[in-house]
Design brief:
Length: about 220
Amino acid sequence: MNDEIILIDKPANMTSFGVVARVRRVLSHQAGKKVKVGHCGTLDPFATGLLILVTGKMTRRAMEFTKLDKVYEAEVVLGQQSTTGDTEGDITVVSTTQPTRQQVEAALAAFNGEITQTPPIFSAIKINGQRAYKLARDGKEVDIPKRQVTIYSLEIIDYTYPSLKIRTHVSSGTYIRSLAVDIGAALGTGAYCSALRRTHIADFSVSEAKTLADFGVEN
């Protein structure tokens, strides 16, 4: 258990670091010594799904796994906006317009391919050495540079206004919260991401992942 890849199905309402800390504690206890554990690609606390952990010497390859493409399933709530782009922010109703399915499909189609995206202010991106979310919580102005990302596919799983459930295959560095906000802007309704689950990282699938309960850890 010293130098390996561990796939974890992260539960909601837990940070990625919290998952790492719990698994490290179990593995270190089993090994009788401190085991080095890291994660490859942060999931927001409210999100669930696939998290790649690396242990021992495999931690040197963390960035290699972080840069892989990913697949997410998300629920987007139309007609409302959140200060954080997800359920953790202040949510306000901004529109009662109910787009048709055809309008939604047309809006989603426009996002396929390479797009320019602005990551959320409340994110782990570093600005001048400090995490953006910390600066935002301190009330400081946060200027996050736009980035180029690729949306390989974006499809509707279900649409029953105001709930829009989508599945999307994206390049590394894509923020689904930002995508949800941009979809709302394209429809003229506003939107935020109310649920998010990562199902794949390249060829790694959440169906192959362990849960914290498998390590004898309660959520």
